[in-house]
From TrEMBL:
SUPFAM superfamilies: P-loop containing nucleoside triphosphate hydrolases (SSF52540). One of its GO terms (cellular component) is Rad51B-Rad51C-Rad51D-XRCC2 complex. It comes from Sorghum bicolor (Sorghum). It comes from the Eukaryota. InterPro entries: P-loop_NTPase (IPR027417), XRCC2 (IPR030547). This is RecA family profile 1 domain-containing protein. One of its GO terms (biological process) is double-strand break repair via homologous recombination.
């Protein structure tokens, strides 16, 4: 739809139709985006701005990497189904902690998993017990890995001027395709930078007008007593949690954190956000695939839209595993 509107917006809007037909046509032009758990619960589309809030080690950056891999992987390649989007990602690192080796590990695990599933469906023999692969298989996976990484764009921003300059670069980049696919995800990973100004929101809005993309932003919360803003989404969700926390079995400590989570971002940013999800790290642990290892348990809660449910999950090398 963005391409049609960019060429002739009047022609796109001049269609004689009802409001319901217009909405249906708009939604079909922007199909829903499938993301890995726990981001899969809320229906997301290009143009949405998702804020992922949570304390340190709650899995915010990991979810960004999982979503990035889902975006840069193709849907199908050489007859092998991967279920990706085959589109480009722009990753803006405002915290200077990006780990490219972690991204590569997740991507290679997804590629290996897709190839292994294809072999099983075709009835091919299992790899040898020592895990070795033939030269052709290694070359195949390396080629796909290289193709995917070409769709991952990265910029490190140490201050607000560099951040705004990077957004302008994304705008110019969105006018042309990257490896045959336009920028589809814009990721902003930040923990400490709070100087979100009107200029930043303005540049992001210009970007979404040029190229509708899904924007994913991480944010570290601030806990403490005091009055929150009218848009403090945690107050709304906490009422539900306090009324039904016994049945869900979540710790009082987690409830108190949610109640005292203060919104510190300016109102222009709060009104810009369309979706919000809260992440937490629980005291409980879950067993890993390796018997000698245990993993911390994480929880996620969509508070905009309010889905009135919490999900438990653990983070592993090959992704996220939901805990029933």
């Amino acid at each position: 739809m963005a391409g049609e509107a960019g060429r002739d917006p009047r022609a796109w809007l001049a269609v004689n139709e009802t409001a319901a037909a217009f909405l249906s046509r708009s939604l079909s032009s922007w199909p829903p985006i499938t993301l890995p758990p726990p981001l899969h619960r809320a229906p997301l589309r290009p143009g949405n701005v998702v804020e992922i809030a949570g304390p340190s080690n709650s899995g915010k950056s990991h979810l960004l990497l999982m979503a990035a891999v889902q975006c840069i992987l193709p849907k199908e390649w050489e007859g092998i189904y991967f279920g990706g989007l085959g589109r480009a990602v722009m990753y803006l690192d405002l915290d200077c902690r990006f780990d490219v080796l972690r991204l590569a590990q997740i991507l290679r695990n997804r590629i290996a998993e897709g190839c292994r599933s294809a072999h099983l469906r075709n009835g091919d023999p299992e790899p040898e017990n020592n895990g070795t692969k033939d030269e052709f298989q290694c070359s195949l996976e390396n080629t796909l890995f290289s193709d995917c990484m070409q769709r991952f764009l990265y910029a490190r921003c140490c201050n607000s001027p560099e951040f705004i300059a990077a957004l302008k670069t994304v705008q110019s980049q969105s006018r042309r395709e990257v490896s045959g696919a336009g920028i589809y995800f814009v990721m902003i990973d930040r923990r400490t930078l709070q100087s979100i100004t009107e200029s930043v929101v303005h540049e992001l809005r210009k970007l979404l007008q040029l190229q509708p993309a899904l924007v994913l932003v991480t944010k570290a919360p601030i806990y403490g007593e005091g009055t929150t803003t009218a848009n403090d989404f945690n107050r709304v969700s906490s009422k539900y949690m306090l009324g039904d926390s016994t049945g869900l079995g979540y710790s009082r400590q987690g409830e108190e954190k949610t109640v005292s989570n203060r919104e510190y971002m300016p109102s222009i940013w709060q009104s810009f956000i369309t979706h919000r999800i809260n992440l937490q790290v629980e005291e409980a642990e879950v067993p890993s695939v390796l018997e000698s290892e245990v993993l911390p348990m994480h929880t996620s809660e969509w508070v905009q839209p309010c889905l009135k449910m919490k999900e438990k999950f653990s983070i592993m090398d090959d992704g996220v595993s939901l805990i029933q």
